[in-house]
Amino acid sequence: MRYSFQLALNGTNLSTEIIAGISSFLATSYIIVVNPSILSQTGMPFAGVLTATILVCFFSSLMMGLFARNPILVAPGMGLNAFFTYSAVLGLKVPWPVALGAVCWSGIIFLLLSAFNIRTLIIKAIPKPLRYAIAAGIGLFITLIGFTNARFIVANPATILGVGPLNATLLTFLAGLLLTALLVTRRVPGAILLGILFTTLAAYPLGRWWSDPGVTLVNFKGIAAAPDFSLLLRLDLVNSWQWAVVPVIFSFVFTDLFDSLSTLVGLAEAADLLDENGEPRHVKRALLTDAVATTLAGLVGSSPGTAYIESAVGIEAGGRTGLTAVVSALLFLPFLFLAPLLSVIPAIATAPALVLAGVFMIRPITKINWLQLHEAIPAFLAMVLIPFTYSITQGIIWGFLSWTFLKLTTGHHSDVSGALLIIDAFCIIALILA
After folding, report:
1. Name one Pfam family in it (predicted).
2. Max Cα separation, the chain?
3. From the CB of residue 401, how many other CB atoms can be counted at a distance below 10 Å?
4. How far is CA 133 from the centre of its chain?
5. At residue 329, does pLDDT exceed 60?
6. Where are the domains of the chain?
7. Which of 87, 305, 343, 400 could cross-link 293 (Cys pair, CB 3.0–4.6 Å)?
8. 131-178: per-residue pLDDT in tens?
9. Please, which residues bridge with residue 274 across strands?
10. CA distance from start to end of the chain
């Protein structure tokens, strides 16, 4: 093992890699609960999504460790699961088997783009300010979902949105949010997972004494059970390959491509995991792993998988090789059998994690030059339209189209490439088909 992972060559050792793997797992483990809680709103069984989530985390992280030799975890992406549920299934009324088919097709497309290096042309065509803005917009979208799930933000006929009543449920959410924020700020290992557990325990009296239907915990069915493989191969590949679903596939490919790429670049720069050319180490293999993770997700019943920025926790702990990812992958497996226990976690317990996810995802907006209005305006539109329209696709589309329009009409023609014009054409098609 020491030889295959070249621990000494990478300035690490076995114990350091194991500790790093545990650290990355604790930082990422919240997805075990959060992903099923989001996707189950489409009608998919919670236990089935939990099993699919674990399978994606295990096999994809294992591949990242053994094939790409990087200390990076792969799991269903935050933002991608929100798009799957709220934009594709609930917004566009795409049946969830068809949406799973779209996930699989996007993985296959991503696989081809990575294998033939076409991704390089696409990456160069997408303006960096739009990449940063879209990441921030998805963060705001996830935060909105968190506040809505906690009933902190509610519908209001007079003002469109309003604040929910200050009752026991809302106070429990706020307590969970503040505690989770404190744990994250103090860099406590597994802070988000601990926040979820605390809020779940605090919510128990709400279900027992006040019979709050949103947080009731009286349907406890035990701790362990056999894995639920009911979503395995339930995808609809035929009906997902039609014009009406093309915008969904496009959004999956786009978001997954740049989410994974930005994560890989950011982690590589922070940890000095670079090759002799200054590129992220084994980047082609890493992107292939990401593509396989998305394809696998569609097959087993989850939203797309992607490289996780939380892997930075393990890297900070000294993880430098694929062994870190292998250790983390193995730690996911026991949770295959804990669906009954995890299914009692209410929406207000995962809501703090969703709110704080926005904090992490909005950081890239500091890289946008807000004084250059021909760049700032498209970036702003992309960022705010994602939460305001409750659609990641709409934010992406109008970000691209407004960028092209302003650049062409203000004399900055060199900032609009032929590849970007092709992407714009797909955006217009998506608007027509919507």
Report:
1. Xan_ur_permease
2. 66
3. 18
4. 16
5. yes
6. 2-218+244-360
7. 305
8. 888 878 878 888 898 898 888 998 888 888 899 888 888 888 999 999
9. 280
10. 52
